[in-house]
Each structure stands twice: as structure tokens, then as C-alpha cells.
Design goal:
This protein is an alpha+beta fold and 116 residues long. It has one domain (27-115). It has six helices and three strands; from the N terminus they run H-E-H-E-H-H-E-H-H. It has a three-stranded mixed beta sheet.
Length: 116
């Protein structure tokens, strides 16, 4: 096989392997944040007394699967688009960089949710 053939084969393999991973990222699920420290960890100013109810954020199924260790990924995928929360994030230990980045990008809407 020549170099062009090998490059084409490698590209095709990459597309085929990426397909299932991309499919897992489709759809959003609701995740409740029940610990003020999770919000503070990403620079969202909130006092314990301000958080009257859990803060709900919508996250891709793939990220939810990482921060919701007690919920099977298949259950999360079935909950996408559902209005009920798929799980609660109750400690900073449950979060990861992707989840924290998502919280930072949605900081203003989370702060509005806390204020209301």
C-alpha cells in the first residue's frame, strides 16, 4: 500500500472510531449542584444562605457520565431532554475540568438562577 493509501485508511479509521464517541456527546441532561463549594471552585460567588435549592445545569451526556459516578451512562442517555435531574453533584471531588469549564461558560445564567 502506498503512502496515499495508508493516509486514506488511517483517516477512515479515525472517522469510524470517532462516530460512537460523537454520538455519546449528543443531547443534554440536567445535573443538580447541591454543594456551594462546587460553584465557588469555579469563581461563582455564592453564600451558603443564598443557595435555597440545587442549581440545575444542562450538560452533555458524556460529561454527566463522568461527574455522576452512581448513574449508569445508559440511564443518563435515556434522560437526555428530560426535565428531571439525572444526578446530584454534591462535592468538588465529583467534578472534572470539562464540567468546571462548562460552569464557567455559564456563570451569568447560574448566578441569575441563584438570585431568583
Amino acid at each position: 500500500m502506498n503512502i496515499k493509501g495508508r493516509v486514506a485508511a488511517a483517516g477512515l479509521a479515525a472517522v469510524l472510531l470517532a462516530g460512537p464517541a460523537m454520538a455519546q456527546q449528543e443531547g443534554l441532561v440536567n445535573v443538580n449542584i447541591t454543594d456551594v463549594e462546587v460553584l465557588k471552585n469555579v469563581g461563582i460567588a455564592v453564600d451558603v444562605g443564598e443557595l435555597q435549592a440545587p442549581v440545575t445545569v444542562q450538560v452533555p451526556v458524556g460529561i454527566a457520565a463522568q461527574v455522576c459516578p452512581n448513574v449508569d451512562a445508559n440511564v443518563l442517555a435515556q434522560n437526555k431532554g428530560d426535565q428531571t435531574a439525572a444526578c446530584d453533584v454534591g462535592s468538588v471531588d465529583q467534578t472534572n475540568q470539562a464540567f468546571n469549564n462548562l460552569l464557567q461558560r455559564n456563570k451569568s445564567s447560574i448566578e441569575q438562577q441563584i438570585a431568583s
